[in-house]
Each structure stands twice: as structure tokens, then as C-alpha cells.
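Input record, target 12 of the design panel.
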């Protein structure tokens, strides 16, 4: 009898240990911009925790949000009287979902969520922010090689606008090898980013809508169908900045969750080695834990 009880206790303890070790136990649920807006409108606003840098926070944030950059985030300073919603920029730098789940694990709280698509998706939905309006420059956001590789998941859409080797640009412009010899084959993005959705926009004639790029079956890149809460768009060019116009076009159409790979094909060929753009801005570590993007989902 005692042996059976000990066996049963051992089995129960093992089951509890398995449950506690399960990532699903601390999984934080995502929240859409519409859901958050409803909470705010109903006077039930959660405490908004902006984990971006203080510089980006100062450039614009969701009204009422508190800035707690990942580098100095201390779960003991978090409000305890309201539910928490974490958000980042949504551009592949810091994974707000991972931050939320880590804080949930550290504190044991169950009232923690994260904003789908981050601040970029919030702006794309034309929600109110503190950002200045009017004649303000709209710089092209970029993503580093390291963040690209570490954040690549099923929610990443890559627009490849690099010059194909078999179709050099007029005047002989195209990709060149490091030693100045024959042009190298572009990096295989599908091998580097196996889970990402990779597309090659068609180059439009210069006389058509001002030239630029368009996607097959769609009138123009500026009207490309994409849900900022569901996917991050990354434009990859030859490293010459030629993809910036496509980024601006998409952003002007209302989608703010679009970035350009810093260094383009040049940085891809060098695998983001130090000194060529691999280093990302700022720390993404809390108590020694890396809180960068991790396979899909953000921010």
C-alpha cells in the first residue's frame, strides 16, 4: 500500500514538474490594436510598457505608456494594480512577446499581454500617438543582419529587390565579387530564412507610375496587401539603398511595419561580420537573458 502511495506521489510530482517546465504555462496572449483601443475607450486601460529605447520613445509613443527599455527593465518596478501590456517597435529589434512571457514567469502574474505588431502596427491602424504631425521627416527604418536572422519566422515577409546576376542593370551595374571579378550569385534567402515568406517584386517600367516595384497580381507596391499585426516586411536590396523608395512607398500607403536590411546583399555576403553592420543597437538582455526576436512573432 505504501509503495503504491509513494509511486502515485512520485507520478504527481513528475506531472507538476513537467507542467511547470512547459513554455505554454507562461505564454502571454497577444492583443490587437483594436482590442487595446477598446480597453482604453472603456476606461479599462492596462498599464502600457514601452520596451523601446528612450530615444524612440521620445520620438513618439502610445499616450500614457511608461518607457522601460529592455536593458534596464526591472519587474519589481512594474505596476501591480493594473494588467500589463508590453510593446516594442514591431520592427524586429526586441521581441515584446518574449519580454512579456519572461516577466510573467518571473512574477507569476497572469494579467500580462503584448501588443501584436508593436508601435508600428498601432500607428498603421491610425491610432493616437504622441508623435509630432506635419512636416516631419520620415526616415527609413532598418534592420541589422543579426536581428534579421534571429527574428525570421512565419510572420516575416521579405521583398527581394536585388539585381539578378542574369539580368545586369544598364551600363553593367550589378552585383560584384569582393575582388572586382565576375559578379557573385546573390545570397540564397530561402536557405538563410527558411520560415520567412520571400517574394521578388516585378520591376515596373520607368514611365509606369513613376517606375519602382510592383508585386505580381497587384497594381503597385504602394498598395500591397499586408496586415501589420501579422507580418513584418523586410526589403533587401544590393546594399546601395535602392530599396529605400519601396520602403517609403509602403509606409506612405499606411503600413508602418516595413524595414530595409542595412547593408543589403553586401552584408549578406559577409554574413554580418563585425564592422559590417552585424552589431545591433543597444542591449537586449535582462538579467543575462537574451530578449531579442526569436522565431516569429513580435513585438
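The sequence produced for target 12 reads:
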Amino acid at each position: 500500500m505504501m509503495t503504491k502511495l509513494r509511486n502515485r506521489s512520485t507520478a504527481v510530482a513528475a506531472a507538476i514538474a513537467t507542467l511547470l517546465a512547459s513554455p505554454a504555462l507562461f505564454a502571454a496572449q497577444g492583443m490587437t490594436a483594436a482590442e487595446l483601443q477598446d480597453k482604453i475607450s472603456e476606461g479599462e486601460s492596462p498599464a502600457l510598457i514601452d520596451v523601446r529605447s528612450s530615444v524612440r520613445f521620445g520620438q513618439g509613443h502610445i499616450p500614457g505608456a511608461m518607457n522601460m527599455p529592455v536593458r534596464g527593465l526591472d519587474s519589481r518596478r512594474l505596476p501591480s494594480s493594473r494588467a500589463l501590456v508590453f510593446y516594442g517597435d514591431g520592427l524586429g529589434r526586441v521581441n515584446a512577446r518574449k519580454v512579456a512571457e519572461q516577466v510573467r514567469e518571473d512574477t507569476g502574474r497572469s494579467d500580462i499581454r503584448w501588443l501584436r505588431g508593436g508601435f508600428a502596427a498601432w500607428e498603421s491602424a491610425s491610432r493616437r500617438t504622441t508623435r509630432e504631425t506635419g512636416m516631419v521627416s520620415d526616415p527609413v527604418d532598418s534592420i541589422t543582419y543579426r536581428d534579421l536572422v534571429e527574428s525570421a519566422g512565419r510572420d516575416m515577409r521579405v521583398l527581394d529587390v536585388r539585381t539578378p546576376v542574369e539580368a545586369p542593370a544598364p551600363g553593367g551595374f550589378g552585383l560584384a565579387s569582393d575582388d572586382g571579378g565576375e559578379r557573385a550569385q546573390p545570397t540564397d534567402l530561402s536557405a538563410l530564412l527558411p520560415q520567412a515568406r520571400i517574394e521578388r517584386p516585378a520591376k515596373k517600367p520607368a514611365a509606369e507610375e513613376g517606375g519602382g516595384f510592383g508585386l505580381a497580381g497587384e497594381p503597385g507596391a504602394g498598395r500591397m496587401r499586408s496586415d501589420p499585426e501579422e507580418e513584418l516586411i523586410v526589403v533587401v536590396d544590393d546594399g546601395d539603398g535602392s530599396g529605400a523608395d519601396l520602403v517609403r512607398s509602403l509606409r506612405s500607403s499606411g503600413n508602418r511595419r516595413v524595414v530595409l536590411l542595412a547593408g543589403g546583399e553586401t552584408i549578406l555576403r559577409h554574413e554580418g561580420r563585425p564592422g559590417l553592420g552585424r552589431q545591433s543597437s543597444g542591449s537586449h538582455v535582462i538579467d543575462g537573458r537574451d530578449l531579442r526576436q526569436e522565431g516569429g512573432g513580435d513585438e
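The CA atoms of residues 154 and 196 lie 5 Å apart.
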